[in-house]
Amino acid sequence: MSLRTATAADLPDIMALERDSFPSDAWSEAMMAAEIASPHGRYVVDVEAGTLRGYGGVRAVQGAADADIQTIAIAPAARGRGRGRALLAELIASARSRGAREVFLEVRADNPVATALYASEGFVEIGRRPRYYQPDDVDAVVMKLDLAGWARAHEARPEDETPGKGWC
Ligand SMILES: CC(C)(COP(=O)(O)OP(=O)(O)OC[C@H]1O[C@@H](n2cnc3c(N)ncnc32)[C@H](O)[C@@H]1OP(=O)(O)O)[C@@H](O)C(=O)NCCC(=O)NCCS
To answer: Is residue 166 part of a domain?
Structure first.
């Protein structure tokens, strides 16, 4: 897998995967374009042989103590092979390199796959937002990651192909 910072040229492929991955609450193209262009975050794509396999974004204002994972998606045919974890690690590393100490995210309560990924990286549930996702009427689970603990855990696993050298 090959991770790099997303550009405006990636927008059509990102939107196709966005609509496929989030059929009832996909972001608009304008919103995604603004996110990719924002200096207050970083969007990353996983591209293999010219084909988009995944994307994700983190909002991390330089110098702010907290950051937010905004979105992450892997193409259906490419799931279950470690790409989601690698992309998430890259986003977390970007937040850390911008000075964040904690990373937050919201995940649908009916998404056990994503929740398991986040929990296995050290995110813990800190609350719920009832009926946050509309029109599906699904609760949001709010999760938080302590970056110092995450960094210690990754440094203790030097055999990992830990991405994220702070490209920001
Ligand atoms: C969530 C998502 C990004 C995970 O990406 P992925 O590449 O499939 O995940 P990985 O292969 O890196 O697996 C990471 C962990 O996710 C969990 N996981 C992955 N596939 C799973 C499955 N079929 N069932 C249960 N848990 C699963 C496991 O905890 C796994 O860790 P493990 O391999 O050590 O057991 C992907 O499933 C996806 O794009 N889903 C649709 C969009 C979405 O829900 N995004 C999250 C919004 S909050």
So the answer is: no
Distance 58 CA to ligand 1 centre (A): 18
Mutation test residue for ligand 1: of 48, 71, 79, the one with most atoms within 8 Å of CB: 79
Ligand 1, atom 18, lies closest to the CA of: 113
Q: Whose CA is nearest to atom 25 of ligand 1?
A: 113
Domain for residue 70, yes or no?
yes
Which pTM value belongs to this model? 0.93
Residue 163 has pLDDT above 50, yes or no: no
The C-alpha atoms of residue 20 and residue 51 are separated, in whole angstroms, by 15
Element (H or E) spanning 116, and its range? Answer: helix 112-120
**Phi, then psi, of 55 in degrees rounded to 5:** -155, 160
